[in-house]
Amino acid sequence: IRCWSNIPFITMPLSRAHGKSFAHRSELKHAKRIVVKLGSAVVTRGDECGLALGRLASIVEQVSMLQNQGREMMIVTSGAVAFGKQRLRHEILLSQSVRQALHSGQSQLKDMAIPVLEARACAAAGQSGLMALYEAMFTQYSICAAQILVTNLDFHDEQKRRNLNGTLHELLRMNIVPIINTNDAVVPPPEPNSDLQGVNVISVKDNDSLAARLAVEMKTDLLIVLSDVEGLFDSPPGSDDAKLIDIFYPGDQQSVTFGTKSRVGMGGMEAKVKAALWALQGGTSVVIANGTHPKISGHVITDIVEGKKVGTFFSEVKPAGPTVEQQGEMARAGGRALAALQPEQRAEIIYRLAELLTDQREEILLANKKDLEEAENKGRLALPLLKRLSLSTSKLNSLAIGLRQIAASSKDSVGRVIRRTRIAKDLDLEQVTVPIGVLLVIFESRPDCLPQVSALAIASGNGLLLKGGKEAAYSNQVLHHLTQEALSIHGVKDAVQLVNTREEVEDLCRLDKLIDLIIPRGSSQLVRNIQKAAKGIPVMGHSEGICHVYVDTDASVEKVTRIIRDSKCEYPAACNALETLLIHRDLLRTPLFDQIIDMLRVEQVKIHAGPKFASYLTFSPSEVKSLRTEYGDLECCIEVVDGVQEAVEHIHKYGSSHTDVIITEN
Q: Where are the alpha helices (DSSP H) in 190-299?
């Protein structure tokens, strides 16, 4: 072994057998032992003289939070040279002749030449101050930190390696955060360079390789490498076509062009990638991310551990299909091709999809049966959600009818002139309908949503990314395959994409360069979560389905029971199902009221009494906890009102402006 910077290129005996790194980001939350490597660009200020105190304080806070969760945290840090340079510069200025300082003038004093400072002297002067700063910061969180300085020789000698390993394990056992750095005060002289102005800096590649080596030696679960770039790009960052690589796999380095090194230090991205791949080979997962960006540095470490899409994640498991970014690009290109078709061609695609829903019903229902069996065996879905998950022949027939209606009305969806204004003679300004772009539609356990939304996207010439609930995975897969089969008749198969990767919804909501509009279809909680997570992408949210039926004194007896049965019992999980039944006070204790109650009992609908209705009864059903409840099941609330005006006021106060009904002949 020649030096640490060569470690990524060699195979050497490790202190443990090869472990298994995490295959997916979502698994990072299970990381127990974590190494955080802080590059010089993260630790130092922009003027390259002194430390970025605010940034360091934020990093210490995040490390402390994870340590207090029961994880074992280690830090590999740079910064001693920069901190020492600041101190030595100050000492040199103070040691100038008092007379020279007094007579040279303030402006000349500012321009006073500072001699070139030797890096090892800077390290010696800065190491103690750097450690004192870490200790003071960690003390705020009742955490003890310990300093460990190492050199190349400590890894060449087997006994020293064992001693280092034993020391680190003992510190972790005592809940102490080890802070490790190269002992730059005694290392061999580096080759001259000017990374820090006026200082020959020790190569940062030492700390990249040191972090990787320690991560593997200590059998850590995760290595987080913080630098001054967002992660690994497919071309030099800053170039027009540069795209952040979300997941990097061994063997991909041939397709990557490395740019220049970071603002401070010698390592550069190439050295980080080599060190990361070496650690990955040793069983440690790695993420390279930006530790300097003011908007994300305050939570970058905790975000990575939570599995959020930050930086570049190194994985040995390559998915079979395209990444979600690639799917977004395919949907955009496919959507543009779709928009270029004639309206009749888009309608043909939808008609074909409607045919496939009925022609392939056995395949669809078989897949749906597998989803239902898994959901029932795992017991993870409530009865209303199971009903939403279930498909049937009648549902598929209804879907096909709905799709044909969309196809018939789709001819004016794109290119329709809404308004025309004459600006001047022979100059008209037109407002014309155009596709939005790429839609991301997130839906829960409703596989019938997939063909519905696909048909609407096709009719309007939009590319579509679909993210369905995992409980409907088999059904969604078959329905998406049929959708792409229909799209293929005009060569636009890629316009509709189903996201099958283990992407968190929050990560999808950050793809502002790929997605133009997000439409969540599901519970109000889902809508709120998406609105909160969306970064720079509009969200078309919908309200809850707190739907009312008011029965007036002039209502038709025949219509009342039919409408109530249909709106509550036919499909109680639907968002436009009856949740609150408002009854005119004069109808209480009448044959019509008795018919309503008898019908609800026969249909096994659980009744909750509103406050006014309960006051009329000696033995009332359970009083409702809230008049703003969406049951989504064979349950409803009954409340009494004095007339249509009070009914309308009640609906305005407690309803969600979704679907409300007045039954009357007046």
A: 205-217, 268-281
The b/e string for 220-246 (b: 16+ C-beta within 10 A; e otherwise) is: bbbbbbbbbbbbbbeeebeeeeeeebb
Q: Which two tokens stand for residue 18?
A: 């090869």
Q: What is the pLDDT of residues 5-38, one digit of tens each?
A: 333 333 333 333 446 889 888 899 999 999 999 9
According to DSSP, the β-strands at 427-432 and 417-424 are antiparallel
Strand, helix or coil for residue 622: coil
Taking Cα atoms as reference points, which of 124, 123, 89, 125 lies closest to residue 109? 89
Distances from the Cα of 635 to the Cα of 259, 594, 605, angstroms: 63, 18, 5
SS3 390: coil
Full-model pTM: 0.72
The residue type found at 275 is A
Residue 124 C-alpha from the chain's centroid: 43
- C-alpha to C-alpha distance for 355 and 361, rounded to whole angstroms: 10
Identify the CA nearest to 331 among candidates 344, 322, 319.
322
**260 three-class SS:** coil
Identify which of 357, 356, 361, 385 has the alpha carbon closest to the alpha carbon of residue 371.
Answer: 385
User: Among residues 167, 157, 89, 154, which one has the least CA distance to residue 121?
Assistant: 89
3-state secondary structure 219-233: CCCEEEEEECCCCCE
Buried b (16+ CB within 10 A) or exposed e, 591-615: ebbeebeebbeeeebebbbbebbbe
pLDDT in tens, 179-236: 998 887 776 654 443 333 333 333 334 578 888 888 988 999 999 999 888 888 877 7
- CA pair distance 381, 542, nearest whole angstrom: 23
Q: Hey, what domains does the chain have and what are their CATH numbers? A: 25-91+116-188+205-314 (3.40.1160.10), 324-533 (3.40.605.10), 548-663 (3.40.309.10)
Task: Count the Cβ atoms, other than its own, within 10 Å of residue 95.
Answer: 7
Please state the φ and ψ torsions of residue 179, each to the nearest 5 degrees. -115, 110
Helices (H), 488-537: 505-508, 524-533
CB neighbour list of residue 460: distance below 8 Å, 6 or more residues apart: 410, 413, 414, 435, 436
Identify the burial level of 664 via C-beta atoms within 10 angstroms of its C-beta, where 0-12 means exposed, 13-18 middle and 19 or more buried.
middle
Nearest to 509 by CA among 526, 525, 540, 530: 530
Q: Rounded distance, CA 197 to CA 146, Å?
A: 30
Contact 42, 208 (CB under 8 A): no
